[in-house]
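Below is a filled-in request sheet from our internal design queue. Each sheet records the structural input a requester submitted and the sequence that came back. We keep these sheets so that new team members can see what a complete request looks like end to end.

REQUESTER: design group, bay 2
PRIORITY: normal
MODE: inverse folding
CHAIN LENGTH: 350
BACKBONE (tokenized):
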């Protein structure tokens, strides 16, 4: 079991299999039976399996434009460059030609991410060595820095579909394992609450998408419920983006996931819900329920911590909207987690 920021996670693999659906295919499933000391070790194993599978298929190649001076004509003659060669009394031709290479962004992303994991002290040496052996096949592939990767421009076809899952995981790793230099040593900080919440949120979202497509699970942007004559100044308002919005028959449920090391705030021995959390979900519900029908509900869903006191409660507005505070215990067997996820959406109007 992994303890991350006071949150025990028994089924981190299953969270990942929903967040990155392709993990259910291509012989990844057996990984669930192995024991991993930490999440980085798990990432390293998943990438090892993914890269090995890619190598069997053959690494993706792309044509890149090269310029070179050679003895025979290849591709397009660069006249100006050839004249310079002649003036220099070199009997060579300046040519421009396309070359098929594995040195492209598809493979650069993988090589750079593997480099990050190899530098992580929490990854076992056995898995580091396995990754190093696989990287021998990436000889000639350049490393790339995460900030220069234009993730939104990557396009996948039938031949590169396997890359999509691996790149999703690479994005998650490279976004959240930020390098910092201290006294000449490169260190990798632990995942922040915000970053682990991203995985937690995506797990919940993908669970409902897979098992209940009728819920139309989506991260929905909520419009401010202001009159039309205020539109001229609306561009300075913050965007309201729900984590998960579900259509449950006549009712709409907005879920806001929270992954905190402390689920409650304490003052003078009294435990209360984090003020910004309850304000946020209340604001979402009130603005989404534009007609004051009472059919829009909200839920704060916390990952359960090891603390003795956990947040839970039901609250009803004057319009009939239900605001719920719930926890999800990630230490359970996955069947129990599924049962709890089903139970969350089977609430009754109070």
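RETURNED SEQUENCE:
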């Amino acid at each position: 079991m992994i303890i991350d920021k006071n949150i025990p996670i028994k089924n981190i693999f299953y969270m990942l299999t929903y967040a990155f659906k392709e993990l259910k295919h291509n012989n990844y499933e057996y990984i669930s039976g192995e024991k991993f000391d930490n999440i980085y070790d798990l990432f390293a194993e998943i990438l090892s399996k993914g890269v090995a599978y890619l190598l069997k298929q053959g690494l993706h190649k792309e044509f890149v434009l090269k310029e070179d001076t050679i003895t025979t004509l290849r591709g397009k003659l660069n006249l100006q460059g050839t004249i310079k060669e002649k003036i220099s009394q070199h009997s060579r031709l300046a040519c421009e030609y396309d070359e098929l290479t594995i040195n492209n962004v598809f493979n650069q992303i993988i090589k750079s991410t593997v480099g990050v994991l190899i530098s992580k002290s929490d990854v076992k040496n056995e898995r580091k060595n396995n990754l190093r052996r696989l990287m021998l096949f990436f000889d000639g592939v350049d490393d790339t820095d995460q900030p220069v990767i234009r993730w939104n421009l990557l396009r996948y076809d039938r031949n590169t579909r396997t890359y999509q899952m691996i790149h999703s995981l690479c994005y998650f790793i490279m976004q959240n394992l930020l390098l910092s230099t201290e006294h000449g040593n490169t260190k990798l900080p632990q995942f922040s609450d915000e970053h682990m919440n991203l995985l937690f949120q995506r797990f919940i979202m993908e669970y409902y998408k897979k098992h209940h497509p009728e819920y139309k699970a989506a991260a929905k942007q909520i419009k401010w419920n202001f009159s039309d004559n205020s539109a001229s100044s609306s561009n300075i308002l913050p965007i309201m983006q729900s984590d998960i919005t579900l259509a449950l028959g006549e009712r709409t449920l907005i879920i806001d996931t929270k992954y905190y090391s402390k689920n409650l705030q304490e003052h003078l021995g009294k435990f209360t819900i984090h003020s910004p959390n309850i304000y946020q979900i209340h604001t979402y519900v009130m603005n989404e329920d534009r007609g004051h029908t009472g059919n829009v509900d909200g839920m704060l869903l916390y990952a359960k911590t090891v603390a003795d006191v956990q947040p839970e409660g039901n609250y009803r507005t004057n319009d009939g909207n239900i605001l719920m505070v719930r926890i999800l215990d990630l230490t359970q067997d996955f069947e129990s987690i599924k049962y709890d996820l089903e139970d969350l959406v089977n609430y009754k109007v109070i």
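SHEET NOTES:
- The chain has three domains: 36-60+105-191, 64-101, 194-344.
- Residues 177-192 have pLDDT under 50 and may be disordered.
FILED BY: M.R.
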